[in-house]
Write a structure and sequence with these properties.
Elements (H helix, E strand, L loop, with lengths): L1 H32 L13 E5 L4 E2 L2 E2 L3 E4 L4 E3 L6 E5 L3 E5 L4 E7 L4 E8 L1 E6 L4 E6 L2 E5 L4 E7 L2 E8 L2 E3 L9 H14 L4 E5 L5 E5 L3 E10 L9 E6 L10 E3 L4 E5 L5 E8 L6 E8 L5 E9 L8 H23 L22
Parallel strand pairs: 9-11, 17-24
Antiparallel strand pairs: 1-4, 1-6, 2-3, 2-5, 5-8, 6-7, 7-10, 8-9, 10-13, 11-12, 12-15, 13-14, 16-18, 18-22, 19-21, 19-23, 20-22, 23-24
C-alpha cells in the first residue's frame, strides 16, 4: 500500500514538472531541427515593471515604470525595490540593487529567469512554473510556487515558501538566447506593436460637477482588439487654458500612473474643484508607445440639493407663514355657543354662560 501511494506521489510530481522539464530541452531540440517556427517566445511585451525610484532596463534608465520584452535585464535602484508583473506568469519583487534577466513562455506558462545579483521574491500563478539560473546553478519549480532567491558569497540561496523548488545541477541553463534573438528579430520586422486606447466613461468633452469625484476608465487593446494586461498607462492633466490648473486633480496630482488589469482596463479618480466653468485637457498614454487618447474635462455647477440654503430658506419661509396664519386664526376665532341638550322630563333649569 505504501509503495502504491509513493508511486502515485512520484507520478503527480512528474506531471507537475512536465512544463518546466520540457523547457529545459527546448533549446537543444531547436538546435537540432533549426526550426524557428516552434519558438514560443513571442515578439510582444511579457509584462511591466515599476518602482518608486528610477529603474534600469538593459543598462538604460527607464524612469519609474516601463514595459518588458523577452530577454530584458532589469535592475532595481539601490534604495528601492521594483515590482515586475508578468501577465500570465506571476510577480517578481526585486530588492534594492538586484538585477535579473527575464523571459516568458506564454504557451506553457513558464517564467525563465537568470538572477545576476541581489535577491528576488517570486509568486507564480497556479498554472505557471519557473526555471531559474542562480550563481550558475539551475532550478525548476512546481506550478504556483512561491519562493525567494538570492546570491551570497557567490552561492545560490533558495528559500521555498510554498510549492517545490528543485536543483537540476550546477551548470548554466542559458536563457534561450537563440529564441530571444528570433523573437526580437520578428518584432523588428513587424515594427512596433500597436496599442489602442478606448475610453469607457469618457468623451472628447466630459462634464463633471464641481466638488465631485469621477472614476475615469480606459481599456487598452492590441491591434487584434484583445485586452492588454499589465500595461503601464499615464493619465496627464493640463493644457486646458488659463483656468486649467483650477479644474481638478488626479488623487491630488496633475499626473498619475495606473496599470491595466486582466481586462486591459486602467482607472484613476478625478476630483473636480469647487470652481465651475473651468476646464482641463486630459491625455492618456501607454508608456513607451505612441498610443494616445486626448479629451477635455469641463467642470460645471454643482447640483443643488433639495435642502440647500437657496431651496431651504424659501421652503421654511412658506412653512413659517402657514404656521403663523394658523396661529392667528386660532387666536381670533369667533366663539361658538353650544346649545346643551335638555332633558325636559326633569324640569330642570339650564343657565347659559
Amino acid at each position: 500500500m505504501r509503495k502504491l501511494k509513493f508511486t502515485i506521489f512520484l507520478l503527480a510530481f512528474a506531471l507537475a514538472l512536465m512544463p518546466v522539464v520540457s523547457l529545459a530541452g527546448a533549446s537543444r531540440v531547436n538546435d537540432r531541427s533549426n526550426d524557428r517556427s516552434a519558438t514560443r517566445l513571442t515578439a510582444a511585451p511579457i509584462g511591466s515593471v515599476e518602482s518608486m525610484e528610477a529603474i534600469e532596463i538593459n543598462g538604460n534608465e527607464a524612469g519609474r515604470q516601463g514595459l518588458l520584452w523577452n530577454g530584458d535585464t532589469v535592475q532595481a535602484a539601490s534604495g528601492a525595490s521594483a515590482q515586475v508583473m508578468l501577465a500570465t506568469i506571476g510577480n517578481i519583487t526585486l530588492r534594492g540593487g538586484a538585477t535579473v534577466k527575464l523571459a516568458a513562455d506564454t504557451v506553457s506558462h513558464a517564467m525563465l529567469a537568470s538572477l545576476v545579483n541581489g535577491e528576488v521574491s517570486v509568486s507564480l500563478k497556479p498554472e505557471s512554473a519557473a526555471r531559474l539560473e542562480v550563481a550558475g546553478a539551475g532550478f525548476v519549480t512546481t506550478k504556483g510556487a512561491q519562493f525567494r532567491a538570492g546570491i551570497r558569497d557567490g552561492q545560490p540561496i533558495i528559500t521555498p515558501i510554498s510549492g517545490q523548488v528543485m536543483s537540476v545541477g550546477n551548470f548554466a541553463l542559458g536563457l534561450y538566447d537563440k529564441e530571444i534573438a528570433a523573437a526580437n528579430a520578428a518584432q523588428q520586422q513587424a515594427g512596433p506593436r500597436k496599442y489602442l486606447i478606448k475610453p469607457l466613461n469618457l468623451g472628447t468633452n466630459t462634464e463633471i460637477r464641481a466638488r465631485s469625484t469621477r472614476n475615469l476608465q480606459v481599456r487598452v487593446t492590441d491591434e487584434n482588439d484583445r485586452p492588454v494586461p499589465d500595461a503601464p498607462v499615464l493619465f496627464l492633466l493640463g493644457g486646458g487654458g488659463a483656468n486649467s490648473g483650477n479644474a481638478g486633480t488626479l488623487a491630488g496630482q496633475a499626473s498619475l500612473r495606473a496599470t491595466t488589469n486582466s481586462q486591459g482596463v486602467a482607472q484613476v479618480n478625478f476630483t473636480a474643484s469647487e470652481t465651475s466653468g473651468t476646464s482641463t485637457k486630459i491625455k492618456v498614454q501607454v508608456e513607451g508607445t505612441d498610443a494616445v487618447w486626448e479629451g477635455t474635462i469641463n467642470v460645471i455647477s454643482a447640483q443643488v440639493g433639495f435642502w440647500a440654503p437657496q431651496n431651504a430658506l424659501p421652503i421654511f419661509g412658506v412653512i413659517g407663514a402657514a404656521v403663523g396664519l394658523g396661529a392667528y386664526k386660532f387666536a381670533t376665532r369667533d366663539p361658538v355657543r353650544q346649545t346643551p341638550q335638555v332633558d325636559t322630563r326633569t324640569g330642570g333649569t339650564v343657565i347659559l354662560p
